[in-house]
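TL;DR need structure tokens for one chain.
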Amino acid sequence: MTTPLSPAALVRDHTVYSCVMGSRAFGLATEGSDTDVRGVFVAPTPLFWCFDKPPTHVEGPADEHFSWELERFCDLALRANPTILECLHSPLPLHADARGEELLSLSTAFLSRQVLTTFVGYAQSQRRKIDADVRRHGAPRWKHAMHLLRLVGSCRDLLRTGELTLDVGDAREALLAVRRGEVPWPEVENRLDRLATSAVAAEPGSPLPALPDRARVEDFLVRTRRESALAYGESL
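>> reply
TL;DR here they are.
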């Protein structure tokens, strides 16, 4: 019989990769910025043999800390989830064991032209929420507006170059001006529209493949599960 592990123990003892995300990873941190940590853990294979499966994600145990189980993480990355893809390209890694390093080596296998749909689609859904704020309160949540500009800009650049770069570089001051509410909302809307149009125009000639390399990722997942099962058998 396999002893269940607490979510905190899964993160503490089975994390294979972790990194800093949020404003610090994007080069947009200010004096009051939090340190957001994101991670990937591998639940021991025997836990999947029980009726009660291990969690697909864990919030905590530390503040601003969120982790995904490897299979869930890979599934979301193959679907071009913006948050997940950005984790694989964080310029601020904290920890990576051998499996974490292999996961990072697969970062390009997750990339595809599907990012146009997911990145811009997510931005559009968030923009509708901001539009509602503007109608109710006369102004958007400026921090959210800043990050929408960053996200759509990174999508455009990813489609153009085939590389996902998180740090905003020279765009930092212009984006922080948006966060401070110094740029009128109609101008922010115009910037978002121009960036989205540029992203759409970049998609046909993008160096990215049409679809991610699912087989390569699945091979890694299966080998990781098998190694975990064998290690468990040796411990009996």
